[in-house]
User: Fold this.
Amino acid sequence: MRYRLTFVAGLALGYVLGTRAGRERYEQLKKSMRQVAQNPAVRNTAETAAQQSREIAGKALHTVSEKVGDRVPDSVSDRVRSLRERNTSGTAEDDWGTSNT
Assistant:
């Protein structure tokens, strides 16, 4: 799904940059893209993809930390530990202040 969205966004950007239709067509495309971005189905899909990527990243981190063991610097392990504690404490925001809902 991510590759399709990237392709569509690239296609739209290429069209906007290469078009000779002028400002009116640009504003029309901009309005359409804003409507797509605000569509609840698109937002839910993006949030689902973000949640899945967080889960996969967590699994990858666990696998890597098992293999690396004590060779990780204390500063890195402390940061990971603090992030895990914050995520399990029930806060609904990530590092950038966006909601995970």
About this structure: The mean pLDDT is 78. Residues 12 and 91 are 36 Å apart (CA to CA). The two ends are 20 Å apart (CA to CA). The chain has four helices and no strands.
